[in-house]
Backbone:
């Protein structure tokens, strides 16, 4: 069979693949984009965007429970048309998917966008349907899918994942959410606020991936007041007539459906990675450099959720850009301009759970800190004026810094508008700022950011640093 040559072959047309493609186009390289699954990014189709649309509907409807305290009458009579609400979520989802496709693959010629599955025959030779593609460099950006234990697949339509939840025209009356990480917690709370009977299960003792024990304790208390959480025991599923029975330890319930949110797995099946000639790990992933995205010493790169390391959109975009940039560099080598892949500094880790209140983790995680060299500042949200006015003064902020330099290291929090606080913290950590430098930034009154100011003040009092002037909040004029 005749081989077709391109400079760069990209497997996967999600966020990483599209960002890699933009680098190839910008450099004027020949390329093919290969996609065997549904077009459109995971974020737009089944992830970030439809879930946030559902969260918004649920939050707005839930807000009716606050209206009585403001003297607003008639809120008791508000009702929700679930099929109409789900149709709105699907319309929003379709809008976001159309925008992605319209700006990427819709108008690509068939010879550039191959809608089929790829398999490695050699590190630079791919079988794509009836074609053979020989490339100067290959980028693996095949994404991930929901993890579903094989025995659970027998439950058919009663076993939901994010791939099927947003396709429903109506919701079951009762749902068990198994897995209380970001996806399970966001959707579990939203389903509860939409009027569905929800119970949550996780074999871990924490939720939302929290590692700071104090923030985790607060989060469990806050979320557990909305719907029951059963932690520390694996959940078992069995049939119970028309329902499913869930048992975890001594607790058991029967529900109409289960939302399985126990994690995601890389899409690696059928890729033929064994033909790369490198040793694969227990997850069948090849070794790769997290700063160059290069697989071993091969002209092969890997990017995005398929790496199973930083499954968030902006990281997937960065990895796609790095992989695409370095694929361009090494294909220039064949043209007589030898260039080795470059290694890039990665952004400060940032994770946001959009439940209410938001749960966020920024920078170094609690379990990675040196307790002898770390100071921790905290503030509870209960007395924060703006949060009290909002009727949402629940939560805790904990901020970490090096004890002797004052440099910020990380934070975990559960707080209203935590998504905004988390960005301020991640930007400050990435700039290498100290607690004192942050406290010299303006803090308006009354704003949620005053809660962060309070945590930083508590942190600053615990530092063993030489003070820069008589006032913490203000620098002296030189």
Residues:
């Amino acid at each position: 069979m005749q081989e077709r040559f391109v400079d760069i072959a990209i497997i996967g047309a999600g966020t990483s693949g599209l960002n890699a493609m933009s680098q190839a186009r910008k450099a004027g390289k020949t390329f093919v984009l290969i996609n065997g699954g549904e077009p459109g990014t995971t974020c737009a189709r089944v992830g970030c965007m439809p879930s946030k649309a559902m969260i918004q509907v649920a939050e707005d409807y839930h807000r009716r429970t606050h209206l009585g305290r403001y003297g607003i009458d008639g809120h008791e009579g508000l009702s929700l048309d679930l099929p109409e609400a789900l149709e709105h979520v699907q319309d929003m989802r379709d809008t976001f998917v159309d925008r992605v496709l319209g700006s990427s693959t819709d108008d690509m010629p068939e010879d550039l966008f191959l809608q089929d599955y790829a398999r490695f025959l050699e590190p630079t030779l791919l079988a794509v349907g009836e074609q053979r593609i020989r490339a100067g460099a290959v980028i693996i950006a095949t994404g991930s899918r929901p993890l579903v234990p094989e025995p659970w697949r027998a439950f058919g339509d009663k076993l939901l994942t994010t791939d099927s939840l947003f396709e429903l025209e109506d919701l079951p009356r009762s749902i068990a959410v198994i897995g209380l990480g970001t996806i399970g917690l966001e959707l579990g709370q939203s389903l509860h606020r939409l009027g569905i009977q929800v119970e949550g299960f996780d074999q871990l003792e924490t939720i939302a991936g929290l590692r700071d024990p104090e923030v985790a304790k607060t989060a469990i208390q806050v979320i557990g007041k909305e719907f029951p959480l059963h932690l520390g025991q694996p959940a078992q599923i069995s049939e119970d007539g028309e329902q499913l029975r869930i048992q975890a330890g001594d607790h058991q319930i029967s529900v109409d459906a289960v939302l399985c949110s126990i994690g995601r797995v890389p899409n690696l099946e059928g890729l033929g990675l064994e033909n790369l000639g490198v040793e694969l790990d227990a997850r069948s992933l090849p070794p790769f450099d997290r700063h160059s995205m290069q697989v071993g010493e091969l002209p092969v790169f890997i990017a995005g959720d398929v790496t199973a390391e930083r499954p968030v959109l902006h990281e997937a975009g960065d990895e796609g850009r790095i992989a695409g940039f370095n694929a361009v560099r090494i294909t220039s080598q064949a043209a007589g301009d030898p260039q080795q892949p470059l290694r890039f500094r990665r952004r400060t880790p940032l994770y946001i759970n959009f439940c209410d209140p938001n749960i966020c983790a920024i920078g170094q995680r609690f379990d990675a800190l040196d307790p002898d060299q770390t100071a921790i500042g905290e503030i509870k949200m209960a007395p924060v004026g703006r949060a009290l006015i909002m009727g949402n003064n629940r939560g805790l902020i904990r901020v970490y810094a090096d004890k002797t330099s004052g440099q910020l290291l990380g934070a975990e929090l559960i707080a209203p508008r935590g998504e905004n606080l988390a960005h301020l913290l991640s930007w400050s950590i990435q700039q290498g700022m100290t607690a004192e430098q942050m406290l010299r930034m303006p803090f308006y009154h009354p704003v949620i950011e005053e809660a962060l100011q309070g945590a930083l003040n508590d942190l600053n009092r615990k530092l063993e640093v030489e003070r820069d002037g008589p006032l913490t909040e203000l620098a002296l004029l030189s």
In short: The radius of gyration is 25 Å. The chain has a mean pLDDT of 95.
